[in-house]
Amino acid sequence: xxxxxxxxxxxxxxxxxxxxxxxxxxxxxxxxxxxxxxxxxxxxxxxxxxxxxxxxxxxxxxxxxxxxxxxxxxxxxxxxxxxxxxxxxxxxxxxxxxxxxxxxxxxxxxxxxxxxxxxxxxxxxxxxxxxxxxxxxxxxxxxxxxxxxxxxxxxxxxxxxxxxxxxxxxxxxxxxxxxxxxxxxxxxxxxxxxxxxxxxxxxxxxxxxxxxxxxxxxxxxxxxxxxxxxxxxxxxxxxxxxxxxxxxxxxxxxxxxxxxxxxxxxxxxxxxxxxxxxxxxxxxxxxxxxxxxxxxxxxxxxxxxxxxxxxxxxxxxxxxxxxxxxxxxxxxxxxxxxxxxxxxxxxxxxxxxxxxxxxxxxxxxxxxxxxxxxxxxxxxxxxxxxxxxxxxxxxxxxxxxxxxxxxxxxxxxxxxxxxxxxxxxxxxxxxxxxxxxxxxxxxxxxxxxxxxxxxxxxxxx
Length: 461
Ligand SMILES: Nc1ncnc2c1ncn2[C@@H]1O[C@H](COP(=O)(O)OS(=O)(=O)O)[C@@H](OP(=O)(O)O)[C@H]1O
Ligand SMILES: [Mg+2]
Ligand SMILES: [Mg+2]
Ligand SMILES: [Mg+2]
Description:
Elements: H1 13-16, H2 45-62, E1 68-72, E2 75-79, H3 87-113, E3 119-121, E4 127-129, H4 130-147, E5 154-156, H5 161-164, H6 169-183, H7 200-208, E6 219-227, H8 229-233, E7 239-246, E8 249-257, H9 273-280, E9 292-297, E10 303-307, E11 322-324, E12 337-339, H10 348-358, E13 365-366, H11 371-378, E14 383-386, H12 400-408, E15 412-415, E16 436-439, H13 442-458
Parallel strand pairs: 5-6, 12-13, 12-14
Antiparallel strand pairs: 1-2, 3-4, 6-7, 7-8, 8-9, 9-10, 10-11, 14-16, 15-16
Helix pairs in contact: 3-4, 3-6, 4-6, 4-7, 10-13, 11-12
The chain binds 3'-phosphate-adenosine-5'-phosphate sulfate (PPS) and magnesium ion (MG) (3 copies).
One magnesium ion is lined by residues 126, 157, 229.
Protein name: 3'(2'),5'-bisphosphate nucleotidase
Cofactor: Mg(2+)
Family: Belongs to the inositol monophosphatase superfamily.
């Protein structure tokens, strides 16, 4: 096995007894990505145990997170991201997003069972909740704790102004309580929590620290603490999105989708989604395996999906992860396209015309948030299109994590002119040509780009 090996396949049960996972210097192999080759897997418990033992030893001795062993019917998938450049960043980011997902689930449940008094409006009339600020504070705190305040630069959606006003005391204390509730769980996620509870000033400081202006040089995190806040307050889809941008390029992305349904068909059940799942799962959310965290690093050619980590289950971290891949469908007649739910966020009439000219036959799948990117990366849909009204400038945190995950899962993401998205110009995707097109494959992408101009001329946009 070469010293820079990136994969390992266990071939037969009889080798298991002597299996030593080594590189050619006879040291423990530095990287294991995926090994699947267990036609017999699941038949013999002692073989399973042995393999788990070998892999867990590796995990302990090497500590290359996030690594995992996952059963996939008869196969066994072993994954570890190995000592690549961003392994520490990825490890912390995945864990932080897992924690944020858990925080959001609690807040969403309480929002749905209470009145709307916990939903606030920003200057642009868009909604913001305790969850948006709490996630931003939590992730900011974790990143700063893990990498040192001085080394961490974050560009994130929420600011502290409205939270710091004298009449926002109740709101601020709700945020402080939510953040502390979440951070005490840090050890369950494999992270260190604070030694004592955070006070209001600590929380405000953590939120306010996310004031990076981004730009073309250096590295910074782009964070959308709750993307699709409208979906969130409606009990529907939303996402937690965290990306690392280095010298203007997205190098790592993590996307938490706490309500991603078990059955992809249920993605379209918006507004009724929460009612449906509560009807179908009279027990606890534990028995309901909705939700996932997706992640990828640039150039790896792989994207991964973890289930949500459940703190009440005695599962040792790291959790299991499986590789994801975009859909192979390239026939427009069979392809599904996603778009924003709100007409005010993207022109439904323009995409309807475009879809018709490309030969898309299925009804659009309208889903809140970057869950649309997740659907493409997982292969549950083939196309995502967003055409905001003229004058609206797309923000980098709404696209960075989703883009890199789709690309590494084999897809293509560009603006409507076919150019790459530019993350080097600060808060906004400056120079974006009309809209965003993300596809599972290059063939579909090319067809759409070719049709945009003709449809654009006929439209009133
Ligand atoms: N006018 C307008 N046009 C286009 N986009 C806008 C607009 N206003 C807001 N936003 C951004 O849209 C983010 C949510 O996008 P979605 O694709 O999820 O839209 S939708 O909620 O499904 O309609 C949303 O992200 P969050 O604020 O994080 O929810 C906004 O950044
Ligand atoms: Mg957003
Ligand atoms: Mg947001
Ligand atoms: Mg918002």
